[in-house]
Specification:
The complex is a heterodimer of chains A (about 240) and B (about 240). Chain A has about 240 residues and is mainly alpha-helical. Chain A is built from 11 helices and no strands. Chain B has helices spanning about 1-10, 15-50, 55-70, 70-90, 105-130, 130-140, 145-175, 185-200, 200-230. The interface of A and B includes residues 69, 87 and 183 of A.
């Protein structure tokens, strides 16, 4: 017997015993999807936020448009536009040798989720950068520091601290949003659960998935709180 | 291009009317969910502030569960769960009958439960922003509990909660797209069906995106006006640099 069918065996829940391994595989896919899209979004968010604040007007307008569209429409629409829309351009992608990417629901989800979360994270970064008191960069200029030093050694560390909490919330939102992948035939945790339900008609399998999602979200919340305490430890008044 | 115009037209071959009806359903779900979710959220916030540990634990449990579950999962559990529960009850009562819950009702209940969990946090923050002296002053004036809430707490609570609740509304608008998976014929459902029939995904999902974007932009303008109105009588806080 595989390890992943053991929990179902222990609690005597036959459906979970039979589909436990599918659920475990789905859980791994959920983790990968969320991990990759969140990290890629984080990577893009900083340059996007900086350009949104400091680039020339046409670039800024373009970014405002991107952020408004991706934050103003449901992720489900964006996912369908990628999966059904871009996925319908098969000859074009085959010519570009990119068909392997848009054929796979996992990559489609990754693509849509990254675009979406990058827009939200860029907005978080923009807010955080704007919340850094202006006096800090002025003091840097008065000391004759270069623009790069002011940005990377003074403004960014402050801004990242402000952004930490909303970024944690965004990660949790991504975990929950990843369940949408099941609607484009991805067998993530939600997809595997739907599969098990369609075979067994046992609603309890949804409750199992609920417990797993709750545990994941709670674990992230706690870990994030620990990380936040560590990174802001110099701000805590000593007793 | 001409094909696209024809496909979006209101004629017999166009999907224009269907999309508009879908947009109407999207709006109805959101508008019906809002008062239900906000009222329940206020109740949860009051439970948080209750002196009884039972209510506080219940409120914590409630918000942890409904903030942590994917909305899609909540929707499935409510939709299938209520159906099974009622069928079970019917069987227990010894009756022979089929029951199916309306997708609209299931959608409103599921989205309302989630909205309540998120808005409870907003209400709670607004309660914390309320100065204690306000309630004390009211009781010094001899106002009863209900009068204090109605005339002193509520107006200030609403003003403090408005930005957060506005945020909740924007999230809710987008989340309504999920009800399409339980066969409610909202914008997303119509767009999906139109795509199946016509094989024009960019056109129809693009149109759906425009509909949601329209609702979002109109809402944010409305919320901006509402916030300004609710802040009248307050001196503007400094000029933006």
């Amino acid at each position: 017997m595989n390890w992943c069918s053991l929990p179902g065996y222990w609690i005597g829940f036959e459906v979970l015993e039979r589909y436990g391994c599918r659920l475990a595989d789905g859980f791994l896919i959920t983790l990968q999807l969320v991990g990759w899209s969140f990290c890629l979004g984080l990577l893009f968010s900083l340059p996007l936020a900086l350009m949104r604040l400091k680039a020339p007007l046409p670039v800024r307008a373009l970014l405002v448009g991107y952020m408004t569209v991706f934050r103003g429409t449901p992720l489900l629409v964006q996912l369908f536009l990628v999966y059904y829309g871009l996925g319908s351009l098969r000859p074009f992608w085959q010519e570009m040798n990119l068909w392997w990417f848009f054929r796979d629901p996992l990559y489609c989800c990754l693509f849509a989720f990254t675009l979406n979360t990058a827009a939200y994270q860029a907005e978080i970064m923009r807010g955080a950068l704007q919340a850094v008191p202006r006096g800090l960069s002025e003091a840097g200029r008065a000391l004759g520091l270069s623009k790069g030093v002011i940005l990377f050694r003074i403004e960014l560390p402050q801004a990242l601290m402000i952004a930490l909490r909303p970024l944690g919330n965004e990660l949790i939102i991504m975990v929950k949003a990843s369940a949408l992948g099941s609607l484009v035939t991805l067998y993530d945790l939600m997809g595997a659960t739907k599969f098990a339900f369609a075979r067994s008609f046992d609603l309890a399998i949804y409750l199992v998935a609920a417990v797993v999602y709750l545990a994941l979200v709670e674990a992230i919340r706690r870990l994030w709180a620990v990380g936040e305490r560590y990174l802001t430890r110099h701000l805590v008044a000593r007793a | 291009m001409a094909d696209w115009v024809a496909l979006l037209s209101f004629g017999p071959d166009g999907w224009g009317l269907a999309l508009l009806q879908g947009a109407w359903i999207t709006l109805s779900v959101a508008v019906v969910t809002l008062p239900f979710g906000l009222a329940l959220g206020l109740a949860v916030a009051l439970a948080f502030r209750s002196s009884s540990p039972f209510w506080r634990t219940a409120a914590t449990l409630y918000t942890t569960v409904f903030r942590g579950l994917p909305e899609l999962l909540t929707l499935y559990i409510i939709y299938f769960g209520i159906q099974l529960l009622v069928e079970h009850l019917i069987k227990l009562a010894g009756l022979q009958s089929q029951f199916s819950i309306s997708p609209f009702l299931a959608g409103v209940v599921a989205l309302g439960l989630v909205l309540a969990a998120f808005s409870a946090e907003v209400w709670l923050g607004a309660f914390n922003a309320l100065h204690k002296g306000q309630v004390e002053g009211a009781s010094a004036l001899g106002l009863g509990r209900f009068q204090t809430f109605r005339h002193i707490v509520w107006p200030q609570l609403l003003r403090a909660a408005l930005p957060g609740l506005g945020n909740n509304w924007m999230v809710l608008l987008k989340e309504t797209s999920l009800v399409s998976v339980i066969t409610l014929q909202d914008t997303m459902f119509i767009a999906t069906r139109a795509n199946v029939v016509t094989k024009e995904p960019f056109l129809f999902f693009g149109a759906a995106a425009c509909i949601y974007l329209f609702f979002s932009v109109v809402s944010s303008i409305g919320l901006w006006a509402l916030e300004r109105r609710s802040a009248r009588g307050f001196a503007p806080v400094g000029r933006q640099a």
